[in-house]
């Protein structure tokens, strides 16, 4: 994930995307666990904010905005929008109508992440009844 962090610090957009079978560990890979948040997201967030701290000067300032989308059964939903998540339009690999709140530190990001996680589609599957989507 560190090459993506460097790309973001160089001015490019980046996305970290997890795809796989139910119960394969996507959520754990992205977030780690509550005792030790050592997943890709905490590492990336800490790297971005540490990098910005090193780059800031009186002539430079930075603004960080985030998105948290769920792609489920071919539909996109904004998980940090106020209220119940609405299905959004996907146009040329861009999801139209997302909210992009500004954040000041990794804790702000993780707060939005936890709020959004509570809005994810949850359904037990026959494949893995203990996956992160089978309980809330």
How would you describe this structure to a colleague?
- With 136 residues, the protein is α+β, with helices and mostly antiparallel strands.
- 31% of the residues lie in helices and 15% in strands.
- The chain contains four helices and six strands, in the order H-H-H-E-E-E-E-E-E-H.
- The strands form two sheets. The protein has a four-stranded antiparallel β-sheet with strand order 2-3-4-5, with no helix packed on it. A two-stranded antiparallel sheet has the order 1-6.
- Helix 1 packs parallel to helix 3 (40-55).
- The chain is globular.
- It starts with a helix and ends in a 19-residue tail after the last helix.
- The mean pLDDT is 84.
Strand order of the largest sheet: 2-3-4-5
Helical region count? 4
Shape: globular
pLDDT below 50 for ≥5 consecutive residues: which ranges?
none
Provide mean pLDDT, rounded.
84
H-E order? HHHEEEEEEH
Proportion of strand residues? 5-15%
Largest sheet: 4 strands, antiparallel
Radius of gyration: 16 Å
* Distance N to C terminus: 28 Å
Proportion of residues in helical segments: 25-40%
Query: Structural class of the secondary elements?
Result: alpha+beta
Q: What is the β-strand count?
A: 6
Attribute tags:
globular, 6 strands, four-stranded antiparallel β-sheet, 136 residues, two-stranded antiparallel ribbon, 15% strand, alpha+beta
In short:
With 136 residues, the protein is of the alpha+beta class. Helix content is 31%, strand content 15%.
Break the fold down into its secondary structure elements and pairings:
Layout: H1 2-9, H2 26-31, H3 40-55, E1 64-65, E2 69-72, E3 75-78, E4 87-91, E5 94-96, E6 102-103, H4 106-117
Antiparallel strand pairs: 1-6, 2-3, 3-4, 4-5
Helix pairs in contact: 1-3
């Amino acid at each position: 994930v560190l090459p993506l962090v460097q790309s973001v610090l160089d001015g490019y957009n980046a996305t970290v995307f997890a795809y796989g079978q139910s119960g394969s560990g996507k959520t754990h890979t992205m977030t780690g666990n509550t005792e030790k948040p050592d997943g890709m997201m905490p590492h990336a967030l800490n790297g971005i904010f540490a990098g910005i701290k090193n780059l800031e000067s009186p002539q430079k300032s930075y603004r960080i905005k985030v998105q948290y989308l769920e792609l489920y059964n071919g539909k996109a939903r904004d998980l940090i929008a106020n209220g119940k998540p609405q299905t959004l339009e996907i146009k040329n690999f861009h999801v139209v109508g997302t909210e992009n709140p500004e954040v000041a530190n990794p804790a702000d990001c993780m707060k939005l992440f936890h709020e959004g996680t509570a809005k994810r589609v949850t359904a037990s599957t026959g494949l893995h009844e203990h996956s992160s989507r089978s309980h809330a």
